[in-house]
Amino acid sequence: MTAAAPKKSTRKEAFKSLEIPEYRVLWWGGFFSFLSVQGQMVLRAILAWDLTERESALGLVFAVFGLTMLVATPLGGAAADRFPKRILLLLSQTAIFLAATGMGVAVLFDVAAFWMLLVSAVMQGAAFGVLGPARVAMSAELVGRDQLGNAITLSMLSMNGTRVFAPAMAGGFAGIAFIGIGWTYIVLAVASAASLWNLARLPNKPAANAEPRNPFTEIADGVRYVAGRPDLRRLVLSSFAVIMFGFNYVSFITPLVEDIFGYGRFWVGLMSSASAIGAVAVSFKLAAIADGPNGHRIMLGSGFAFGLTVLALSFAPNIFVAFSITMLIGAATTGYMSLSNTLALTTTRDDMQGRVQSIMQLAFAGFGLMAFPLGGLAEAIGLRPTLAIMGSIAAIAIVVYAAAEQRATRSTTATEATDAADADEVDDAAPAETQPAAT
Fold first, then answer.
1. Which of 11-15, 46-50, 421-425, 435-439 has the lowest mean pLDDT?
2. CB 33, CB 189: distance < 8 Å
3. Which of 97, 366, 368, 401 has its CA 20 to 30 A from that of 234?
4. Residue 159 contacts by C-beta under 8 Å, 6 or more apart in sequence?
5. Distance separating alpha carbons of residues 246 and 332, to the nearest angstrom
6. Which residue has the higher pLDDT, 388 or 345?
């Protein structure tokens, strides 16, 4: 009986944020939203490959998504600090719903074209630019800072949980003649509608900073806030490098599976699900310890492992080894992304939460933008060498960040020691100066 108590305690800690009813509604809204988004990403990649059969075209779709996020995310962060987050979540989810519905209708009526994929990428990029900062900032609002790591990790769990089956489902359905890509898009539109229903049930709380100001002034204030905080600045810059290069492996799952390994659409979806299996496996343990004292160390280890596993993927001899490596990538990605976001937000003022989160999420805009030149590089030197370069850059970025953090810690310790020594000297000298002269 007593031996089972620690396991129960750990399980309770892992899901403690879900005990809050409002956060539970937000979580389910995210679950259906991620289900739709993950499936749409696979369908866009398959359709882009069917229409063009070029890696650079795949990269262009992701680049357009990233460019839109680059513009929308700072505005979304400023909006999250000024407007009710429920309204922002509903607006962004509506855009995701319309993108799925529009592409489904286009495919069913046999009028789908590559430019439509670009429009769909723009709509989803704009939606993500608003949804991301608003969702994470609302999580902090609902659960408080002491449970923020747990809430973010559970949010990642909902995203990765859908990735276990949504890509495989989308790829599988797309390969069935009587369903195909068109009806699969419609199924994903229904999932978006379910997300909208849940998000509509959230409380319409006022923003922490509702004072009307120029949004570009607010964005500039957020940038200055991060620039003036060396710890945040280092974290943001390293996240950019890790996500922009390492995470771009997802852009090339389709050519990796179909071109290099010679498997079909179902395996494209299954490979996309592999990273989610690893992510879900690690999320339960991570949720229980995310708010603990070792979070920073686990973040560094996860980030470095992320880079190394993407590098290892470039050497995978067959699809089964690649599947196993991709599972490890998913576990490492979850650890790094959950804990880097937690670290950023737990050290940020309440009125800056949305803007700091938007700056962190600009890394995903960079991920989309880098997909295009990386696609061109893959066409020029091959996909395997390109994956090796991407993983190496991500791992090196973590090493540089860790070294910079260690140097900053040593500098702070030395400064504190010097100040303490100076204070001791003053204390020692003070009595001598006040002693009366000897007679």
1. 435-439
2. no
3. 368
4. 30, 34, 38
5. 11
6. 388
What contacts 276, CB < 8 A, 6 or more positions away?
Answer: 160, 161, 162, 163, 164, 167, 330
Structure tokens at 111: 């009028």
Q: Is the pLDDT of residue 230 over 80?
A: yes
Tokens of 238: 């390293």
Would you say 181 and 107 are in contact if contact means Cβ atoms under 8 Å apart? yes
Tell me if 302 sits within 8 A of 310, measured CB to CB: no
Per-residue pLDDT, 386: 94
- Residue 362's nearest CA partner among 160, 93, 154, 78 is 78
Give CA–CA dist 252/275, Å, rounded: 14
Architecture of the domain defined by 17-203+214-418: Up-down Bundle (1.20)
Full DSSP string of 129-181? HHHHHHHHHHHHHHH-GGGHHHHHHHHHHHHHHHHHHHHHHHHHHHTSTTTHH
Distances from the Cα of 261 to the Cα of 12, 319, 382, angstroms: 42, 6, 14
Domain spans in the chain, listed from the N-terminal domain onward: 17-203+214-418
CA torsion angle for 65, 71, 72, 77 (degrees, to 10)? 130
Burial class (CB in 10 A: 0-12, 13-18, 19+), 196: middle
Residue 290 has what DSSP assignment?
A: T
DSSP string of 44-64, one letter each residue: HHHHHHHHH--HHHHHHHHHH
* 324/24 Cα distance (integer angstroms): 32
pLDDT at 171 over 60: yes
311 Cα distance to chain centroid: 20
> Would you state the structure tokens that stand for residue 378, as one six-digit string?
């893959």
Place 365 in a pLDDT band, splitting at 50, 70 and 90. low
- Give residue 3's pLDDT band: very low, low, confident or very high (50, 70, 90): very low
